[in-house]
Specification:
globular, six-stranded mixed β-sheet, binds uracil, alpha/beta, 10 helices
C-alpha cells in the first residue's frame, strides 16, 4: 500500500491544515542560535507572554504586569525586586520614589535612563509590597533569564537582597554580596550587588557605599 501521510489525507479532504501559531509567529522558544528577530521583537514577545502569565497567584491582584523598560541593547541592566503600587498602576518599573533615586544614580553614571534597561525579579506586584515568595521567584525566573539572554548587557546591577540572592543563587546577606565583582551564569556577565534604592531612602547614610558599588560596576564593564 502506498505510504500516505495524514496531512495529505486532510488536504485531499479539503481540511485546512492546523498550524501551531505560536511556533510559526514567534521565535521566542527557538534556541538562541536559531533566532532571527531583533532583541526589541523578543522583548516585546516576552512582555506579551508576561501579560498573560498565570503561573503564580500574583496575576489575580495585578493591574498591570511590569516586564521591563529600556534600551533593548543596553550595556547596563538594573534589576530590582518587584513592582510596587505605582509600577503596578503604570506597568513601568521604578517609577515611584525609589525609581527617582535610581534615576539619579543612573545620571551620576553619566547615563540616561533610556540608555539602560530596568526590570525586576518579579513581574507582578506582591500584595501590600510583601517580600517575594520562593515559588513566585521560581516561576518568574525564566522571564528574567530570557531578558538577560536577549539583552546581553555588559554589566548587571542587582538592586537589593532579592535580586542579588536570586541572580547569584546565594543566601548571603546583601552586605556580604556587595563589594565583589560576581559573574552571571554561563554568560559570564559581570554582576555587582548593591543596596536597593528603597533602602537608601530609609538609610541615606549608605549612599556612599552604593556610589562605590557603581564605580566598581563601571570599571567592570566588559
Ligand atoms: N522597587 C522595586 O524593586 N522595583 C520597582 O520597580 C519599584 C520599586
Amino acid at each position: 500500500m502506498q505510504n500516505v501521510n495524514s496531512d495529505d489525507y486532510l488536504a485531499a479532504l479539503g481540511f485546512v491544515q492546523w498550524v501551531n501559531r505560536d511556533r510559526s509567529s514567534t521565535s521566542l522558544d527557538e534556541a538562541p542560535e536559531k533566532r532571527t528577530g531583533s532583541t526589541a521583537d523578543f522583548l516585546q514577545q516576552l512582555a506579551a507572554r508576561v501579560e498573560s502569565c498565570r503561573k503564580c497567584s500574583l496575576y489575580s491582584g495585578r493591574r498591570n504586569s511590569v516586564c521591563g523598560e529600556g534600551h533593548p541593547e543596553a550595556d547596563w541592566l538594573f534589576i530590582g525586586e518587584a513592582p510596587g503600587a505605582e509600577e503596578d498602576r503604570l506597568g513601568v518599573p521604578f517609577v515611584g520614589r525609589a525609581g527617582q533615586l535610581l534615576n539619579s544614580m543612573i545620571i551620576a553614571l553619566d547615563l540616561t535612563r533610556t540608555d539602560t534597561y530596568i526590570t525586576n525579579v518579579l513581574k507582578c506586584r506582591p500584595p501590600e509590597n510583601r517580600n517575594p515568595k520562593d515559588d513566585e521567584v521560581q516561576e518568574c525566573e525564566l522571564y528574567l533569564h530570557q531578558q538577560i539572554e536577549f539583552i546581553r548587557p555588559r554589566i548587571i546591577v542587582a538592586l537589593g537582597k532579592f535580586a542579588a540572592q536570586t541572580l547569584l543563587k546565594s543566601s548571603k546577606p546583601i552586605g556580604k554580596l556587595r563589594g565583589d565583582v560576581h559573574s552571571y551564569s554561563q554568560f559570564n556577565i559581570p554582576l555587582i550587588a548593591t543596596y536597593h534604592p528603597a533602602y537608601l531612602l530609609r538609610s541615606p547614610i549608605e549612599k556612599r557605599k552604593v556610589w562605590q558599588d557603581l564605580v566598581l560596576a563601571k570599571s567592570s564593564l566588559t
